[in-house]
Model the fold of this input.
Amino acid sequence: MPCNTRLAWTTQISDGVGHTGMSDQVYFDEMWGTGGSEGTVRSPYAPFNSWLNGEDPKHLRAKQREAEDLFRLTGITFNVYGRAEAEERLIPFDIIPRIISGREWQKLSRGIEQRVRAINAFLYDIYHGQEIVKAGRLPQEMIARNEAFLPEMIGVQPPGNVYTHIVGIDLVRTGPDQFYVLEDNARTPSGVSYMLENRETMLQMFPELFSENRVQPVSTYPTDLFNSLAACAPEGLDRKPTVGVLTPGIFNSAYYEHSFLADQMGVELVEGHDLRVQDGQLNMRTTRGYKPIDVLYRRVDDDFLDPLTFNPESALGVPGIMDVYRAGRLTIANAPGTGIADDKAIYSYMPEIVEFYTGERPLLENVPTWRCSEKDALAYVLDNLADLVVKEVHGSGGYGMLIGPTATKKDIAEFRKKLEARPSNYIAQPTLSLSTVPIFTRAGLAPRHVDLRPYVLVSPNGINITPGGLTRVALKKGSLVVNSSQGGGTKDTWVLED
Amino acid sequence: MLGKTANGLFWMYRGLERAENTARLIETGQRIALTRLGSTDDEWRSVLQTAGSLNGFIQRHEHVTKDAAIDWLLRDKDNPSSVLSSVEHARQNARMVRTALTGEVWEAMNGTYMRVKEVLARKISERDLSGVLGMIRQRTGLVRGATHGTMLRNDIYDFARIGTFLERADNTARIIDVKYYVLLPSVTSVGTSLDNVQWETILRSVSARGGFRMEYGASNEPRDIAQFLILNRRMPRSLAFCAHKLRDNLGYLASEYGHNAPSLAKIDHIERSYLSFDIDAVFDYGLHEFIQKMLTSLSELGQQIEVDYRFYE
Done:
């Protein structure tokens, strides 16, 4: 050891073993490769590692606490549904950054851009000619019988022809060159405020790291978001477009993010009861009367958007807003009905979708997926429940899924019943050997599984991908679930200038 | 600015002001209790009355005792005007209007909330009371300072100030309302120790003993105290001062928006009809009636502001 303050590994890299049941599993660690702490540090992490070796763990522990205080004071909290006690909780933040080289990032961003283009083309097609169905590349029932498909959107021309203004592509890594897309978030991807605040926090706590490492900035995101949204404004406006952020309100789990984004963009944060449709236009109630909104970045689900068109019980939306939208006098971001593209059953067709619309081979791989609606697939899944991850087609947030390798026999038996009762409601995937990145624990560094959600902005001016994104980390040893609602934490994500 | 945001700012700053005023009332009550012999329960009863929460208290407690009164005023969640409830209310509104606040104001507000919530999680012992009350005054002062030092002087600031001064005027009026009888010139026992204590209570509850001495020297004329609390234009908690600030801020709104709202006419009327004479005119009108009139007018003014600036619909 070069230095006696060196942080000790508390566990072997392959520590996931006993927990996942995959006895010969060796995980790829993004800092140490597959060699564990005895291995050689991978090059993007080399400068960081030498800095780390010079740090006193006591000092780092104090910094970790300082980070938490900062987050609490800024109010970066989320609300956990169904828990009155812990109304506002912090998402744990880990001070060890996740580092990606510029070269790795370039490759990823090309793949992301291709995928996002395909998703937009797919959505346009689905709500217009449905060429992909006519070409026999996607079964008709995948659309017709899909809850996320909105017949109200058929033939609607969204301003600028953009459907998914804001996309989050969830990626996982299993090896030095192997990435998979785990999920496309084409409705309302959340978490971007953490990407920004994590970086702010790191800049405040460890400014020296940013002079030693050339980290690409993420701080332009709010401006990029505003410009991207404004560029999607309805055509023929005779003034600068007014943008607003629509939140379900202060009790929503992502309220902090909604207010953060509105604040950073310098636009109004509105709720349904601040809005009204008047003279064929969407208006907000200001202290000086009603003023028009041209672009609405909504963080309210489709179903609640317009009680006249969708859920009549909704108090979160605005009666008549869909009429304004269909008349082309409002941009709704993301467009209603985009959920069809991030549906987990459609996900399994993404390689075909990318090829169909771009004419190219997909640059990013899908995780192999069994559609339980298909008889052979179902039989395979039922036979191999203990090795697979089974997810609800419309589920999110890590709820309602089975992780075979870590599940008890009882869990599996119960899940089997649910699966047999409604097979089309599920898809299954192999358990991936997700890469790890060390986290800072009381006892030193310890490897934990991570995923990555880069954020993508789409406008007629082009596709903008912020270098970095949100790294979510499963803080529990061996756990593969990174969702914040289930004990996941986050890390700052660095993309280096090469 | 959204009507909802104006509403949130208004109530955020009312909540802060109320928390501070309630802390000051507790401090006064405690001070009187310590410097007087015998039962002080009547004193606590009038503190509760001033805080506008005697009825709520009586519904839940058989007797007025010092401990119960302090706990009720400080941290009872059933009391919407307790310090804890007021700070929570202020912070809830601050979250709602987060986009209108500077980062420093938000952090001061959130830090105040976190600290107050932590400290008031348990019953406060008599020994700790003074420290806790001091902390509340300092923390609310911090939010006010951040507001003063970092916020643009635009309509956002105006609504914050309007909330502050409406709450403050209401608080001062209620202090006088409960104690008006000791300020009446007809009281013959001038100079008795009982009256001295009463006057001191009044001045302490608006943090104005020092200010009063500066303005009136060693006087302890009830007339001077009434003049000071109602009409003195330099005293930051007097009715005239608060009304003047309300007028200023409603005036700024009118010029920024290019429209004179009915609430501006209303505050104009309050100032001209009630706060432009000397104290003898007030006594002639009847101090009690005067204060009642002020309380009603302030409440109507609040309602008019809600309507003028579309707080709700």
